[in-house]
Amino acid sequence: MRQKRLFLLPIILVTLFCSVSSAPKNGVGKYNQRPHMERKNKVQLPHNVPDGYRIAQGDMLVPQGRKFINWPEGKWPEDPITGWPSVPYVLDEDVEVDRTVIESGLQHWMDNTCITFQETKNESQPHLRFIASDGGCWSYFGRQPQNGQDIMACDTIDVVTHELGHAIGFFHEQSRSDRDAYVKILWENVAPGYESEFQTEDSLNDVEYDYTSVMHYWSTEFSGNGKQTMMPWNPYDEILMYAVYGPFGVLTFRDKLLANIEYGCLDKWSSNCEGSELECLNQGYLGADCKCVCPPGTEGETCETVIGDYYPPLSCGGNVTSPSTIHTPNYPDSYNPLEYCMWWIQAPEDKKVQITFTDFDLCYHDVDADDQLFCNELWDSLEIRLEDPLTPGELYCGESEGQYADADIGPGQQFTSEGSNMFIKFYGSDWNYWRGFTADVDFV
Ligand SMILES: *[C@@H]1O[C@H](CO)[C@@H](O)[C@H](O)[C@H]1NC(C)=O
Ligand SMILES: *[C@@H]1O[C@H](CO)[C@@H](O)[C@H](O)[C@H]1NC(C)=O
Ligand SMILES: [Zn+2]
């Protein structure tokens, strides 16, 4: 049976880390790559990650997925005494060092849902067994029938939270049946053999799609060539899928809501609040303390006041519809750390967009394990899409302080769009000692 087969498939989460031991203004930093956690067939993920950043998820062996499992036996049952859904767990001795991180992840779910995780000594019942990481991070989908299922939750709270999501029944966001309305899959960039990562399955999509979900992949996940494998239909939304922008690794409002629907928390809480029941508006819900839990963009006792969108606004860039100059924020002073800017330059239909750089001073190239320079979107970078806003463009990186090659773009350098649109994505890492760039926009 299809479901049965799915039910038993483990998924593996691969994360990559790279730390930067120093960030000198003069000279390229030293990159200490922890052993790369590669996918089984040794496809190299394209990233080095500066210290303090995380690559999001890259799960393996996921043939299909839904946002939430649709087989009831995969949900953890209620504790007969307390009445709350209960997930017993044991910590393998080897994971002693990670105990604090794992407990923080468990607590994060408990603070936001009615699911209880209880450490147990009774291994004669289904339970989670946290085991030490051998480099990967993974979990089964939902509760397994046998007495004990392993979970390799790794050593950072964002990954622990993600893996616990799988363990209680979450699949990846981009596997939802309705995902094609939200993201375009760029199959040509998917690493060969990993197409199954992007399959969908029928699902009940009770909660709206969420680019910022703790269960969403990054836009370049499982890329074979470093380019995006997924692009949101609104190109500006791509920033929502990056850890550095939003509160990544933290359950989003919609993640919490879904778990609370699936585990019956909303009904349980609301029956505990009888008499003092508030009617929460704008998709807010009544939480454990009988107060409304409001989605981002709303406030007030019953979430009645709408103050913005669910997603945070773009902090810089925007549509450009007339000849002008675009530049990084604060130019010629340094841009802000972790800044994302996107410009959608739109010429009249019979014209092309031409940009001429007058300055391009970004934090340098990355170097790979073989000391080769490469341009990496996790350092400062500029992506220029000449074809159309949903077709990934080339990445351009900064100078190298004389130690390696020069910057990818020099003063006077021009780019011309193929059609009437050009889309530019700037990402500034947190080494913000550089001036940034400025470029003149013309329609030709
Ligand atoms: C362990 O849990 C199972 C299932 O709940 C129960 O039947 C069994 O009695 C428990 N064993 C002990 C020693 O408590
Ligand atoms: C930017 O341009 C796109 C494409 O023309 C359009 O759909 C969108 O509404 C524009 N955004 C703003 C804020 O004007
Ligand atoms: Zn995952």
TrEMBL record:
Catalytic residues, chain numbering: E163
Gene Ontology molecular function: any one: metalloendopeptidase activity
The CUB domain, residue ranges: 303-444
Keyword Zinc: yes
Transmembrane annotation, as ranges: none
Principal EC category: hydrolase
Pfam families: Astacin, CUB
Signal peptide: 1-22
Residues annotated as domain Peptidase M12A: 67-266
Cofactor(s) the protein requires to work: Zn(2+)
Superkingdom of origin: Eukaryota
Residues holding Zn(2+): H162, H166, H172
Coiled coil segments of this chain: none
Entries under Gene3D superfamilies matching the protein: Collagenase (Catalytic Domain) (3.40.390.10), Spermadhesin, CUB domain (2.60.120.290)
GO biological process, one term: proteolysis
Keywords: Disulfide bond, EGF-like domain, Hydrolase, Metal-binding, Metalloprotease, Protease, Signal, Zinc
Free-text remark on how the cofactor is bound: Binds 1 zinc ion per subunit.
Entry EC number(s): 3.4.24.-
Name of the protein in question: Metalloendopeptidase
Organism per entry: Meganyctiphanes norvegica
Taxonomic lineage from the root: Eukaryota, Metazoa, Ecdysozoa, Arthropoda, Crustacea
